[in-house]
Amino acid sequence: MTTRIAIVCPGKPLRQERADKVLALAVAEFPQAELAFHPQCFLESGHFAGDDETRLAALLETANDPDVDAVWFGMGGYGACRIAGDAVAGMREAARSKTYLGYSDAGTILGALYREGIGKPVHGPLAGDIKREGGDDAVRRVLRYLSGKPVELEAGLDDRPTAAFNLMTLAMLAGTDLMPDLTDHVVMVEEVAEHLYAVDRLFFHITQHLKGAAGIRLGRVSAVPENDRPFGSTAEDIARYWCEKSAIRYLGRADIGHDSQNAIVPFGTNRKTT
Amino acid sequence: MTTRIAIVCPGKPLRQERADKVLALAVAEFPQAELAFHPQCFLESGHFAGDDETRLAALLETANDPDVDAVWFGMGGYGACRIAGDAVAGMREAARSKTYLGYSDAGTILGALYREGIGKPVHGPLAGDIKREGGDDAVRRVLRYLSGKPVELEAGLDDRPTAAFNLMTLAMLAGTDLMPDLTDHVVMVEEVAEHLYAVDRLFFHITQHLKGAAGIRLGRVSAVPENDRPFGSTAEDIARYWCEKSAIRYLGRADIGHDSQNAIVPFGTNRKTT
């Protein structure tokens, strides 16, 4: 059975050569997957893959297309929060039976979908992650997942509902019209290219907004820029500190991050499957 | 009449030589001002001017001292959110009749004080701003203000209640136990050393949290790092975009920022005085 996967970019554009590599891998190894890169992926409008209207239209076109099984986000970067509200408001029946997969800035869309109970939001590698060392395997995991083949999910998943976010993305969602209810959820967070003082500040913010969560798991905090002074504690110390201060359970590490190992985490209730 | 001003650092430490310069200026030009730099200002504990307990104790000692008229924040940086909740909880009667002055990360304390109705929070230069080009004048403005001499405040103040914040600091306060009610307020924001995409993201967040505000004024957005692509619009475009999207009035520019021109903005209801 064919799985039809449409790729759009709600934030930054995807480079054509990366799309080509993803497509070549899919053709060679996943004949049952049909990938369609929406032309919007390759547009450039300042920071964004096309202006707000264009990105919104591409997302709605694919989400509302009954012939599309999954919407896969091509790139993160930044820009999803500009269109996420209008996107979920414009989604019709066909949008409700789809999987939506991505992470980082695209987590804004996943969060908004999850809030509205539309489709199946899934944290996992972007098409553009093909560029990374080991990126082929990241793409393979996604294609296995989307085409219903056995695939390793995040190892720490249990019976509790789960959501996974980039830390900054979650912090910006918190308290907004796009923020899902994460009561009783295990919330996984990861970060890239932020100073540890910024990670600390973001943890202050999210722990204040996650009262009632089952707990927090910390993914990788990578590419931390060097500051003019050492912060004095590690990312895990920071997570423990704020969890303790806000009476949220710190539940250990999660296998997510801005790298090719970035695990697949379906939002909501899961059981670990292989 | 003597004005007794205590300087503490809720975030980063202050360099001794900068304190010495501020003190020398005060002695030479403001004989009626008595400055006391709390020894905590010069401590170093990783990123911070002493650990949380030490910074909290210094802030409470000065705030609760009936012989202190004003608490002036020596430095921003980062760290105030770790102690602000305990600080306002530990403030007693003597804390209520004081002025608290600073900005940037110290805005976290100002916000928490304003929320609790404790004392007079005032956005304005830090003691450490003496280091800037024109920093002497920034320090003079503060010493004039704190000692009750005529001084120019932010030119745009009118009869509406006002608050002024660093954009990131306000974004992190939003929705937390430290966030003041800014309904009907003119809210001024400034930013430094953030990419324009980050400014855009922060505006998404704060406009969602400032529903009911009278409007937003934009201070300076300075030292924007160069990105791998131009953002495509200016900081003022960003402010207008999000204000329009969230039906908050955009009220033009404000004379605040991470520079020596950074205007004094008393929180609450003001009239422009000279």
Helical content class of chain A: 25-40%
Shape of chain A: globular
| CATH secondary-structure class of the largest domain in chain A | Alpha Beta
Distance between the termini of chain A: 20 Å
Q: Low-confidence runs of chain A (pLDDT<50, min 5 residues)?
A: none
Residue share in β-strands of chain A: 15-25%
Rg of chain A, please?
A: 18 Å
Give the tally of β-strands of chain A: 10
Give the averaged pLDDT of chain A, no decimals: 97
What is the quaternary state of this protein?
homodimer
Spatial strand arrangement across the major sheet of chain A: 2-1-3-4-5-10
Topology (SSEs and partners):
The structure is a homodimer of 274-residue chains.
Chain A: E1 3-8, H1 16-29, E2 33-37, H2 52-63, E3 70-73, H3 84-89, E4 99-102, H4 107-116, E5 120-123, H5 135-146, E6 162-166, H6 167-173, E7 186-192, H7 196-209, E8 215-222, H8 235-245, E9 250-253, E10 265-266
Parallel strand pairs in A: 1-2, 1-3, 3-4, 4-5, 6-7, 7-8, 8-9
Antiparallel strand pairs in A: 5-10
Helix pairs in contact in A: 6-7, 7-8
Structure, explained:
The structure is a homodimer of 274-residue chains. By secondary structure, chain A is α/β, with parallel strands linked by helices. Chain A folds into two domains: 3-146, Rossmann fold (3-Layer(aba) Sandwich), CATH 3.40.50.10740; 161-269, Glucose Oxidase, domain 1 (3-Layer(bba) Sandwich). Chain A has eight helices and ten strands. Chain A has helices spanning 16-29, 52-63, 84-89, 107-116, 135-146, 167-173, 196-209, 235-245; strands at residues 3-8, 33-37, 70-73, 99-102, 120-123, 162-166, 186-192, 215-222, 250-253, 265-266. In chain A, strands 2-1-3-4-5-10 form a six-stranded mixed sheet, sandwiched between helices. In chain A, strands 6-7-8-9 form a four-stranded parallel sheet. In chain A, helix 6 (167-173) packs across helix 7 (196-209) and helix 7 packs parallel to helix 8 (235-245). At the A-B interface, helix 6 and helix 7 of A face helix 6 and helix 7 of B.
